[in-house]
Each structure stands twice: as C-alpha cells, then as structure tokens.
Amino acid sequence: MNKIFSYKIALTICAVVLAVIFFNFQLNTEAVVAREWPNASGGAYNIYRCIGSLMLAIACITFFARKVEDTKSQQLVLMGCAHGFAVMFITLGTLTVTEVANITNGTIIFAVLTALCVVTRVKTKSDTTTA
C-alpha cells in the first residue's frame, strides 16, 4: 500500500484549516473585511462572523466524520468535501477575477483543499483496488 494520505488524515487537515479560518474571521474580522472587501460598509463584519461560524460547523462535522469506520462512508464524506471546496474555489476565484473582491488567499486555500481531497480519494481508491 502506497498511500499518500489516509481518509482520516485528509479529513483532519480539512477540519483544521476550516477551524483556522473560523478563528481568523472571529478574532480579526475588521482586518479581513478591510483587506478583502475595501468598499464594504455597515454589517459586513457581522456577515463575516456568521460565515466564520458556518466554517466552524463544517469543521466539526468533518472532524467527527473521520471517526466513521466504514471506508465507503469516508469516501463519500471526502468527495462531499471535495465538491464543496470546489464550489468555494470557483466562487471565490470568480469574485477575484472579476475584481469584485480581493480574495486571492481564500481562492488558493480552497484550491489546495479541493486538490487534497481529490488526490487522496483517487490515490487511496487505486491502492485498495490493486492490493
């Protein structure tokens, strides 16, 4: 078996990254909004705190999903994460390219998470079929 990452490690990395985003949004809200949305005013801070809380909820679900013993269920959760991260990557990338917002860091983070999930899923699947 020549695995790059196991499902549990990939899900743990995804959960930790999402938790870091949550803490950044909660503790550093004003700097994040000023950097990514320079023309924002009013309730943008509260929106970022709500988005951060949603990231923490997804991080908790992802973290506890790694405890599932059934490999098929872990594969499904990992591919769900890959699809969700891909949607975030496309959305943030579109906002960055059209210069609506400056979310280059978020685009890169979600691109890396998408690639991590897809590579882990493909490599681990090919390892289990050849073993």
Short description:
This protein has 131 residues and is an all-alpha fold. The protein has helices spanning 7-27, 29-36, 44-65, 71-97, 104-130.
Could you explain how this protein is built, in words?
By secondary structure, this protein is an all-alpha fold. 80% of the residues lie in helices and 0% in strands. The radius of gyration is 16 Å and the shape is elongated.
How would you summarize the topology of this molecule?
Blueprint: H1 7-27, H2 29-36, H3 44-65, H4 71-97, H5 104-130
Helix pairs in contact: 1-3, 1-4, 1-5, 4-5
Terminal CA distance reads: 7 Å
Give me the Rg, rounded: 16 Å
Report helical residue fraction: over 70%
Given helix and strand content, the structural type is mainly alpha
How many E strands?
0
Low-confidence stretches: none
% residues in beta strands: under 5%
Could you give the order of the helices and strands? HHHHH
Shape: elongated
Give a short account of the largest sheet: none
Quote the average pLDDT: 84
Please count the helical segments: 5
Name the features.
0% strand; 131 residues; mainly alpha; elongated; 5 helices
